Amino acid sequence: MINIVVIEDDKDVIDVVRYFLEKEQYRVHVAQDGLSGIELAIRVIPSLILLDLMLPKMNGLEVCKKLRADGRLSNVPIIMVTAKGEVSDKIRGLEIGADDYVTKPFSPHELVARVKANLRKREGKVPEQEIRYGSVFVDTFKHEVLLDSKEVELTAKEFELLVYLIENQGRVLTRHMILNHVWGYDYFGTTRTVDVHVTHLRHKLPPLADAILTVKPLGYKLKETEP
Fold this sequence. Notes:
The protein has 227 residues and is an alpha/beta fold.
């Protein structure tokens, strides 16, 4: 059974989320404050985490940072569920490692669809091979990225984006192409998500800062490496 950790302090929201997820045969584990949520996630090592932004003891952004810093949880999809719908909040959540974002009030069916989409992306399609781009080495089987032989921690979506760019170097990839490949056709977010993750990759992997070219107004292109 798939385990999902829900970190949320609103009992009404918890009841709705639990009901609809359990209908899909997911096992739901609940924590009602940030610190307990981190402890629960470490104990369970779930397949996905639903994380509220406004929490007692530690807010959702800090919780997300802590979860991403833990190697056991660094690739677990995190969907932020919050009443804060401002664009800046969404971008901040994505920048620190959230994979998706749902704003309250939300449709339970939409939430379930996003959960399924993120679980599908986590399950599938990691080929058993090693690829290299200059000083960046990617082991797609181990889900590991090395820069000059030193490991670099990437979120699940950052990793998939990196692999997609390397596998298509020299080709212009529109934002919609990237969204469809990395997030899936049923992703409900905006193309701004792509820009945030590209910025994150450029920061974490400095050799890519100039290698990932912005192709206005379409999207991005990774320079081809020298033969």
